[in-house]
Amino acid sequence: MTQVLIPTSLPELWSALREQPSAHLYAGGTDLLVKRRAGLLDPAILIHLGRIDALRGVTADDDGLRLGAGCTHRELLEDAQVRAVLPVLTQALQTLGSPPIRAMGTLGGNLCTASPAGDTLPPLYVLDAEVELWSAGGERRLLLRDFILGPGRTALQSGEILAAVRVRRAPHGSVQHFEKVGLRNALACSLVSLAALVQTNPAGRVKHAAFAWGSVGPTVIRVPEVERHLIGQPLSLSVLSEAAVLARRAVAPIDDLRADADYRRQVAGNLLLRLAETGSAPER
Amino acid sequence: MKIHLILNGTPREMKVAPDRRVVDLLREDLGLTGVKEGCGSGECGTCTILVDGEARLSCLLLAAQLDGCRLTTIEGLAQDGRLHPVQQAFIDQGAVQCGYCTPGMILAAVDLLNRQPHPTREAIRVALSGNLCRCTGYQMIVDAVETAARRMREGEDA
Ligand SMILES: Cc1cc2nc3c(=O)[nH]c(=O)nc-3n(C[C@H](O)[C@H](O)[C@H](O)COP(=O)(O)OP(=O)(O)OC[C@H]3O[C@@H](n4cnc5c(N)ncnc54)[C@H](O)[C@@H]3O)c2cc1C
Ligand code: FES
Ligand code: FES
């Protein structure tokens, strides 16, 4: 039998972790309990994070937003500040799982699972998000891209939790865009996804571009050549088609039961072409 | 461990294994077999229950998490012998074939109508997109939720 501890405050959490250093954390359980049932892990002690208020809520300041790791996907989707400031994240959350999965699953769980198909990762990569890691001893911050080390691997140390994600406001007039290709609309793991953050000057030429692809490598993939190629260019179909060639060359997809690598590679490039439609009409 | 909960309106104190899946607790220990288990892994929605009024998947909850919560299963939805408007509408619209998905569908629909009394057809489809039905093709289920929404609004006006 697995013991389940449910701390209701940080001091209770730290003492639980001190007494049970081998305990496994969970929040929504939508990854962990599936893996447990599949026999992939069998922790002797579980600590449920769902009743610690300090991990919840969205707060805003002049720089940007701080998203509590314990926020469920639905809470983030319903948050007016998230919708206004981070449309690329909102678009991704709308495609994540299904309504009950969004009501139970958390941002922290999605990031700590560190799946290459995790839908919140590409948006947060292009936004250069930072993570706040807390332990009994204090706090440290890392860029999200340094926090994710590989498939299923993060920089979390024993006794540490993910407390929040910090995201700066994108410059005014930036285009934020997310698209995921899956086998169906709901309950579909991504075959390929793309998050984009593009800033153009008044003449419609690209000043800054950030792209992040999901499900086409061991972790989220950014392709600096693509970002450089677009600088100074309009978001036209021909320019984006050139960038798509570079993207297809750079991604590293695998074959699996959902799709083969060639298909993923092709789609990874194709997804860029959508910016010819959305890029001309900034979403904020 | 001991947990306290309100189950279908009745306060209960129970001794449970903390890691017992809630779907097993409800079906096997308490005989509430209206809760169905389809996939056991979050994909199908047949195990949907309401926890503090919101739809949750009982296959992905552990008993310890229920302490202090209010639970509603399909068995607890009718009030004073009268079916909930969503239940009645499912019957009237022929939204039930084998019935396996029905308890979960109905509870997911109740959750939707609690938060959104005027859903569009598209909003109903999205709200039920975590509940799979192998029989009906969904049309009649969406019809039933629309009907229930209308009746619930009219009931409030009356
Ligand atoms: C049917 C189904 C469909 C799904 N579809 C999608 C999808 O489309 N896209 C997608 O991206 N994901 C999907 N998922 C995966 C999952 O729902 C998400 O990754 C979700 O965000 C996980 O959050 P959670 O709180 O449930 O994580 P949990 O299962 O509670 O935890 C996952 C891992 O993260 C760790 N963890 C959680 N919170 C913290 C924290 N604050 N600090 C430190 N460690 C922590 C846990 O120890 C555990 O190892 C799906 C899952 C299911 C069952
Ligand atoms: S049995 Fe719980 S979602 Fe399928
Ligand atoms: S009525 Fe048979 S699964 Fe829906």
Query: Which cofactor or ligand species appear?
Result: flavin-adenine dinucleotide, FE2/S2 (inorganic) cluster
Strand order of the largest sheet of chain B: 2-1-5-3-4
Q: How would a textbook summarize the main sheet of chain B?
A: 5 strands, mixed
DSSP strand count of chain B: 5
Whole-number total of structural domains of chain B:
2
Number of helices of chain A: 13
Greatest chain-chain contact: A-B, 25 and 29 residues
Architecture overview:
The complex is a heterodimer of chains A (284) and B (158). By secondary structure, chain A is α+β, with helices and mostly antiparallel strands. Chain A is 34% helix and 24% strand. Chain A has a five-stranded antiparallel sheet. In chain A, helix 10 (224-230) packs antiparallel against helix 11 (237-250). Chain A is globular. With 158 residues, chain B is an alpha+beta fold. In chain B, 35% of the residues lie in helices and 15% in strands. Chain B has helices at 22-29, 85-92, 102-115, 121-127, 139-157, and strands at residues 2-7, 10-15, 48-51, 54-57, 70-72. The longest helix of chain B is centred in the C-terminal third of the chain and has 19 residues, at 139-157. Chain B starts with a strand and ends with a helix. The mean pLDDT of chain B is 97. Chains A and B meet through helix 2 and helix 6 of A and strand 4 of B. One FE2/S2 (inorganic) cluster binds at residues 96-102, 133-136 of chain B.
